[in-house]
Amino acid sequence: MEITFEHVTHSYNPNSPTANLGLDDVSFKIQDKKFTAIVGQTGSGKSTLVRHINALLKPTSGTITVGDRVITPETNNKNLKPLRKQVGMVFQFPESQLFEDTVEKDIMFGPMNFGASADDARESAHKMIKLVGLDESLLEQSPFDLSGGQMRRVAIAGVLASDPETIILDEPTAGLDPVGRQEIMDLFKSLQQDGKTIILITHNMDDVANYAEEMAVIHRGKLIAQGIPQEVFNNQELLKEDLLTLPKSAAFAKELTEKGFSFEKLPITINELGTEIEQQLNGD
Amino acid sequence: MEKIISIKDLNYTYPEAKRSAIKNLSLDIYKNEWLSIVGKNGSGKSTLTKLIDGLIEADSGTIEVAGQIINEENIWEARTKIGIIFQNPDHQFVGATVEDDVAFGLENQGMPREEMVKAVDEALILVKMADFKERDPQSLSGGQKQRVAIAGVLATKPQIVIMDESTSMLDPDGRKTVLNLVQQLRSQQDLTIISITHDIEETELSQRIVVLNDGQIVSDGKPEEIYDLGADLQKFGLEEPFTSELVSTLRDTIKLPDGYLNEEELKEQLWKLHSNM
Amino acid sequence: MGRYLPGDSLVYRLDPRGKFLLTFYFVGIVFLANNVASYAFLLAFVIFAVFLSKINFGFFLKGLKPVFWLILFTVALQLLFTPSANPLWHWGIFTFSKEGLVIAGYIFIRFILIIFISTLLTLTTTPIEISDSIESILKPLKKIKFPVTQVALMLSIALRFVPLLVDETTKIMDAQRARGVDFGEGGLIKRIKSFVPILIPLFVSSFSIAYDLAIAMESRGYKDGEGRSKYRVLSWDRRDNIMVIFMAAVTGILLFLRSY
To answer: How is it placed in the membrane, per its record (chain B) (predicted)?
Structure first.
């Protein structure tokens, strides 16, 4: 499903003395089946932006189109289930959403809300627990007896179980150790390769460089850049204004240019950087 | 070097747990050093912190803090020598405002009010949060809250500051400010820093890394020695340093010296190769 | 009532203990008013106090919102059910009379007075100042071994964590809505059931916050509340004395107007 934002503005506490703009006239497209990263400083409006895609928030003005579903300021809270089934959302520290007495029931909760039969939901739970790298035997346990990392995976399985076409991830790896982080990121990449649209909010520019095909930069509620990561990380204006930090490889390449090396475009992954250095040193 | 913490043959098993969280662990920590403790989740890092501060009681073994073996009688005195910055900025903010929070530890010591007012101001200046004195925690960023937590700890003039994954919930800006601040304070206030972390950049600031696995120390050395483990570091909950990853992609075709190279060293090597072309 | 609004004016600077007690006192004397003159006088006093606070009047009107229906209902009740010897209009059990109109008017003004004055207290006094005031007012109870300082600390920590738990609730609600929960849809049982996925995570995170906080407090040397000194002090100034005298004068005038 393609997702389109047209002149979307969102104001918190409108008509009150403490009103402030969460989003300011944002227009852009998120392409179907792609891996899109959304970056920006804390409080820039990234989370506000993605909450419009499944209508957890409604625009103060403007429209959002998700597939053939249109969300406007007038959209009411009825009949949102089909939309929310299509758009799954993994929140920051999603383990805090667990509540059932067994892992299995908790994973089944979403699919059942969206109208799946108990049998289908159970089947889905068994499939998903393996997909997120946990043992099926955990299904009978209470989610509150698991370790933090396992709880995170159960929560993610609970979102994936409804088989959403679009998956929104709000810093899904925050607080995990490096191995866990990489496993989770690889999982999302493989889901995308299986045909899902992935939208990732992150502060980690290396994840953007390694996983995303598209990126958008949000600053103070405004969309200030969009494109493929290669291009955006080479956007001199953004870098000069300090609105974007570089992935480690690009930052290192930039320092190499002080003496001898020159890059037409800053490489953003270790592999690209390695290839460039080899070419420049071996002279071919 | 003068020892400030000395741990001998420490054992701890959580009630109802099958495996011990800390097994026969011995470790000396020296005055004014910055020590990183790394390890996977569940390797015993946080348990060790709680043992050092007497928040849980060891099954066997001893912990000596600033020359005194801690026991039930002197634990409150030992705690005044140690300050801990915890992981979640929201869960350790006791006061209704920044100044109240910084004062909390001093109130516990029964410090007279006039001294307290001075100590709070000084601590807030040290962490550059003096302008936020009257703000409530809801209006602060994660990084700012952690700086207030540091001020609260500094106000009581500890000798040891333990950072228990205290930057893991911060955004990159917040993390950078907090780490720079801690580095500066360590020399300024002659502090010993123990940081428990998964963050490779945080360990780069330290002088020594101890790797914990299953409640035991499996490695103890200078950062460059530990980084030499390369991709194996992941097993111990630390990502592979950027430079060693880059070096391993280059080694096939480019001649580089053995062992771990930090960014400066790698840059120098590459520049040298480039100018010799 | 409203949440504390940062600002600075005479009303902000008054000692919170005085503000706290005099607000209660004022709510008490509102019930002494019995005629147009006394109600008009009290209304003038409240408007004067609001003016002194330098706070936008809109915030006070907002304070009325949550109790709007209660006011409307009570006023309507008085309008339609006050018994009268010569009603203006009469239909079945309903009676509309001049007396009813007057009483309804008084009740309406009484609501306004009470809500505005308590909104004034909460807008200009931080929760922690209120909790300090309570501690200070309860201090005599220490003599009978009532743990006043512990209770005050408990109260201030509770106040400190309310906004955090509100945020947590919003987040959990959003997460469950994203998993297909409809709040406020379906029958009563279904609605009550839809709160289970919020309440359980909220309990779990409250406990984890409480545990973390207890550990953090202990590591910072909090034992049992004994031997602690206090950072916050309340200071009673000349302006607070003036306020008390002013309030006494208001009472005097009110008593005079009552029999006017």
So the answer is: Peripheral membrane protein
